[in-house]
Here is the input.
Amino acid sequence: MMETATEEKRRRDVSFGEMYTWHEGMEWNPVERVILERRSVRRYKEEQVPEKLVRRVLEAGRFAPSAGNSQPWKFIVIRDPGMLEEMEKYVRLRCRLLKFLLDWESSPLGRLSWFLSQVYIRLMPNELHPIPFGAIRLIADGKLRLFHGAPTVILVLMDRRGVSKPQVDVGICGQNMVLAAHSLGLGTCWVGFVELFKFGTKWKRKLGIKWPYRLMEGIALGYPVGEPDGMVARELHEIDWWEDGRKRAVF
Amino acid sequence: MGYLTFRERMTIPTYNDPEACRVGKVVIDHEKCNGCGNCALICPGACLYVAGIGKDRKAYMIERMVPDCMSCNDCAAICRRGAIKAAHGYDFGGFYKVLHRAEMVPPRNF
Ligand SMILES: Cc1cc2nc3c(=O)[nH]c(=O)nc-3n(C[C@H](O)[C@H](O)[C@H](O)COP(=O)(O)O)c2cc1C
Ligand code: SF4
Ligand code: SF4
Here is the structure.
């Protein structure tokens, strides 16, 4: 009850800055608000998203910029609860295996596990960064879900033959869809852990993930429980600013 | 601000060593918190829980030596009472040393 009341309030109380213009200190315009208020949503209602709404979100992806207009993406939409559940199970099993091999704190392999983790972290410093390393353990223990119970998932595949750096294009395309979805009242969460499907021959065959396609990311989509969106504090980044023949640091 | 020394670049931090790593950390204002538990339900690091009964029901951070908090502030966003927020960003040091950052601030409308 309280939730719906605050939700409504949020919708009514907004005063927006104008679009397509700027003056100092003006209110956030609707586009900025969506960008700044978007948070990753990790709790969804069971209610399915209407097909037309998903189609509308996909349109935002179709019109993303891409190097040489090569549009090096392919989408797979999954809305079958049984299938999503199976995918979830598969990833949990994979994470259990990884935890068994690499999590030196809990692995029965002891020192061998420490050695393995040190080798693999050096080989895959991005995939095994401390944050995903911790997430592997959490997924294995059932404390973090793959798709967070979202009723719709968009898998974003990359065509390896894209112009220049197709990874960048795929990221832009995905974020277009994410922002459109939030502006339409949906919640989303990027799901990098779909990476683990690349170890599953069965899933790759079923989903048709083969050359020239590479599965890049998943996007969970659904109606959020509560009000997860909102502006928060984040780290300032030091920016090098060159002007008047010298450089200064700007935050 | 500097970059990485050669030594840092070659050092993989021990992920579960609180001496080596500064992980995310939240501060919870128990005056404001009503123990609704929303933050605990959505925390991607599973590092929050609620305990206590009635008026004393409040959110806490788990007692793991190195919790999986990534300072995302998603807990702060979902909290209707403004009772929780990340105190600082994470920095695992060594190879993963965080570069060119400063304190956490909300969006600024220049
Ligand atoms: C490429 C990418 C992959 C991600 N993968 C996951 C994931 O597998 N699971 C998850 O819960 N969150 C995932 N996230 C969400 C991030 O954790 C989140 O964006 C970050 O903590 C910042 O929080 P915010 O999105 O609420 O601003 C991913 C985000 C990106 C951009
Ligand atoms: S969401 Fe806020 S009020 Fe609810 S338990 Fe967490 S900190 Fe307390
Ligand atoms: S900042 Fe993010 S990871 Fe840390 S406690 Fe809050 S929701 Fe969890």
About this structure: The helical segments of chain A are 2-12, 30-37, 51-62, 81-102, 111-123, 130-140, 166-183, 201-207. Residues 38 and 229 of chain A are 5 Å apart (CA to CA). Chain A has eight helices and seven strands.
